[in-house]
Amino acid sequence: MSPEVLTEKSLTPHTSKPLIALESTIVSHGMPYPQNLKTAISCESIIRSLDCTPATIAILNGQIKVGLELHELEDLARSGEEKRATKCTTRELGYTLTKTAKNPNIKTWGSTTVASTMHLAEMAGIDFFVTGGTGGVHRDYNYSLDVSADLTELARTSTTVFSAGVKSILDVPRTLEFLETHGVTVGVYQSDEFPAFFSPKSGCKAPIVFETYREVAEAIRANQKLYLDGGFLLTCPNPKPLENVDSAVETAVREVTEKNIIGKEVTPYILKRVAELTDGNSLTSNIALVENNARIGCGVAKAYQELVK
Ligand code: PSU
Ligand code: MN
């Protein structure tokens, strides 16, 4: 990270253990309080228990933070509902840094999405990043041209992202086409079907199936040796699938059009509505899959560390 943005306060944790980046938008805009805090804490402790070091990334009062203290995680978790957190994708990083720096008396967060977390993780020298679901091509793409910046960032930033695939709120086949066009390596862990977040099944074939952590680590290493600068997406099927989520998804997606919700508000709106319409069942499933991604992320990070030793 260049010295201007990497100050003493934002320092990456010093450790010889593999570092695992975590995003902050999932905390501020992806889940309600207090489940968001519970998930963030449990994810960090799973990572620690597997002998890796978690580093949740966010912007606090004009300061990039790589690795949050518990009280900061708590504050971040409350900041979504209190509207003190701005969802901040790559294009808003610079602006959010300068804007939030002007609010010294309010704890204002710039919460980073998959795209912006990938970028900051790479700058901080962190190779692995665990999240829940990645953004993708939206279902109404023909009309809205809505493609998440997560996909374009995956095309250019060499961070390995662990997710449970792409939610059925999105157009899964088109998301896979986009990733193929942009040369992103997409693997599925121990399944021959690409997972769709709540469900391990999307109807789309896995582009690559990986059976072991070591195999994934070897492929990441080989990409690096080939100077392939793009990202690597390892998708992990949800261990606690949620059935009958389709009608909730349909309703939420329809409401987006009816209410003319656009831009970066779309995804948080759909996530919130699906949680409401499934009586919170979607949250239980969401938490289980993030924890599962954390375990697999640590397994691969450790296999990678062995490989480059
Ligand atoms: N999908 C989820 N949970 C999330 C997100 C997506 O299941 O929390 C968040 C992530 O931060 C992701 C962002 O990077 O939404 C994508 O937003 P958009 O579709 O506006 O690019
Ligand atoms: Mn979008």
Automatic annotation (TrEMBL):
Highest rank taxon of the organism: Eukaryota
Name of this protein: Carbohydrate kinase PfkB domain-containing protein
Upper classification of the organism: Eukaryota, Sar, Stramenopiles, Ochrophyta, Bolidophyceae
Shown chain mapped onto the complete sequence: 1 to 309 of 757
